[in-house]
Amino acid sequence: MATAHVGSASRPRPGSLHGTRGISVRDVPAQTPLPRGRRASDRLEQGHRHVGRRRIAGLRRRDRRTLLRESNVRRDWTTVREDLYELAGEIGRSLDRPENLRLEDALGTTTSAPIVSPIPVPHFESSAMDGYAVAGPGPWRLVSDPVRSSGERNIHRRSGSIGVGEAWPVLTGSVLPQGTEGVVRIEHAETRGTTVRSLPDHPYNPGRDMRRRGEEMERGAELVAAGTVLGPRHVALLAACGIDVVSARRPMSVSMAFTGNEVIDSGVPQPGEVRDAFSAQFPHLLRGWGADISERTRLHDDHDVIREWISWASGDLVILTGGSGSSSQDFVRQILEDMCTELVATSIAVRPGHPTIVGRLPGDRLVLGLPGNPLAAHTSLYGLAPVALAGFLGRTMPRLRTAVLGRDVPPSRKAVTTLAPCVLDDDVARPCAGTRSHMLSGLAAADVLAVIPPEGATDGQRIDCLPLD
Q1: Which of 111, 193, 229, 400 has most Cβ atoms within 10 angstroms of its Cβ?
Q2: Is 44 exposed, middle or buried (0-12, 13-18, 19+ CB in 10 A)?
Q3: Rounded Cα gap, residues 1 and 80, in angstroms
Q4: pLDDT tens, residue by residue, 2-34
Q5: Taking a C-beta distance cutoff of 8 angstroms, is the pair 393, 93 a contact?
Q6: Taking the CB of residue 194, how many other CB atoms lie within 10 A of it?
Q7: How far is residue 51's CA from residue 68's CA, in Å, rounded to a whole number?
Q8: Helices 303-312 and 331-339: crossing angle, nearest 10°?
Q9: 393 with 92: CB under 8 angstroms?
């Protein structure tokens, strides 16, 4: 993994925040850093920081930043995703503390180990239809009366044994009596007194409508693999096999801070102001990808306030919006370049979203420094946060889908990858209008972000797309 390592010996990681899940950004004063306590199991990096595996201990800050910029100029978008996934996986494995969860609480979590069936499936011989279990050719003599009223009894467990020429009434899912050779469906049978016959149009076929023990899977078969995100269909299978408790990886905790003195969180913005376009939906997106939002706040554009908050942020993943540019007021960039023990990228060869910072903070915390422009921040979040979560939780790398491009897109003037909001029309991706870095109308209309290579793409060319669902 080609990454840049920078900084001094890492700082012990303060501990977890309590009582802030779901907190409003309005509830946390920007001047008050959120407390964190040490986690005993944290693996802290020791020793000197590096750029490109070169020691830079003792370099002046100006020389360190010069070397850092030379080592991280516009890294390829795909390479950054791959390196972030690898780094997140390394951190996730080092901090892995599986939790035993009740099955009903495990939906949406990630399995920490394979789950195997404690029973064969099905675990007993049963009838696939209402009717009669029979042995030998017909006609058959009923040796048991049908149950007329079950009350609270489980009549599906009622069973016995039959011999050749005998029949036993069964329901769908009932235990088959010993000696059963087949089932005659009730709608295919004629019963007179104690005699059962197959109707002429539905001759009896031995072995029909019987559910055999273990025909779906044997005891010990893998139900779900490690790293599986448990959805409703997985939970249904686990419940059917008698699983009550699953071992799941704990969610990735996320600390979020939204910077910018010009940002307001309500009302119509005046000249020189912009509305907050992040705090309402970013937490929901992250939860949908498997995160646990441990804290979120708004910060003034104050160097010391931002640095202090980053130092104390408790999340496994720290996300900041704004301040990632190169001006004297872009404090997030200055602070992350100084604090990170490892840098995956300080710039990415992608538009929108190129001034995005990706790295590792002391205490084995990942950090994403997102741009302040709203479309750029969204494309960076969609492109990078699911990758970090997947790596940390041991899931497979999020896959891109493909679609046919609906019109020509010229080469990039900056020779970078373009993430273009597109509407999907069946399998055709049609680029939207309103896609400059400060615009959101194109994103609001889009279904995917088309990944356009630097050389551009032509109408009818199949391209990769980043889903927005």
Answers
A1: 111
A2: middle
A3: 9
A4: 444 444 333 334 333 333 323 333 333 333 333
A5: no
A6: 11
A7: 6
A8: 40
A9: yes
Quick one: which H or E segment has residue 385?
helix 374-393
Q: Bridge partners of 295?
A: 255
Question: Which tokens in the block code for residue 138?
Answer: 């017909």
Name beta bridge partners: 252.
291
Domains located in the chain, CATH noted:
25-97+250-393 (3.40.980.10), 99-119+216-248 (3.90.105.10), 126-211 (2.170.190.11), 401-467 (2.40.340.10)
Peptide bond into 139 cis (omega under 30): yes
The two most distant CA atoms of the chain are separated, in Å, by 101
pLDDT, one tens digit per residue, over 270-316 is 999 899 999 999 999 999 898 999 999 999 999 999 999 999 999 99
Residue reference for tokens 């042995």? 135
Tell me the pTM. Answer: 0.75
- Average pLDDT over the chain reads 84
Instruction: Give residue 328's pLDDT band: very low, low, confident or very high (50, 70, 90).
Output: confident
Q: What's the token pair of residue 192?
A: 């007179």
Q: Which of 239, 144, 134, 151 is nearest to 188 (CA)?
A: 134
| Rounded CA separation 116/218 (Å) | 10
Block residue for tokens 């390394």:
90
